[in-house]
Amino acid sequence: MSINRKEEIVQITLELAAEKGLANVSMCMIADKIGIKKPSLYKHFASKEEIVEAMYE
């Protein structure tokens, strides 16, 4: 797992949350914005909650 990719996922999630509200952001939306398939996103983070935890680190 690339740390840079994880950081990119966290950054994109923050951007989407700022636009739509965190509750309205889905894993599909995150994957689409990054340009990867949803299963690939799950290789980096098991859930949206795990991404949110990484946002606070």
Structure description:
With 57 residues, this protein is mainly alpha-helical. The protein has one domain: Orthogonal Bundle (Arc Repressor Mutant, subunit A), CATH 1.10.10.60. The protein contains four helices and no strands. Helix 1 crosses helix 4. The longest helix is centred in the N-terminal third of the chain and has 18 residues, at 3-20. 14% of the residues are buried.
CATH superfamily: Homeodomain-like
Roughly how many Å apart are the termini?
18 Å
Strand content: under 5%
Rounded mean pLDDT is 93
Class based on secondary structure composition and strand pairing:
mainly alpha
Annotation field: number of helices: 4
Class in CATH? Mainly Alpha
Are there runs of 5+ residues with pLDDT below 50, and where?
Answer: none
**In the residues, how many domains can be counted?**
1
CATH architecture: Orthogonal Bundle
How many strands? 0
Question: How would you sum up this structure in a few lines?
Answer:
This protein has helices at residues 3-20, 27-34, 38-44, 48-55. With 57 residues, the protein is an all-alpha fold.
Which helices and strands appear, and what pairs or packs with what?
Blueprint (H helix, E strand, L loop, with lengths): L2 H18 L6 H8 L3 H7 L3 H8 L2
Core attributes:
57 residues, 4 helices, Arc Repressor Mutant, subunit A, single chain, mainly alpha, globular
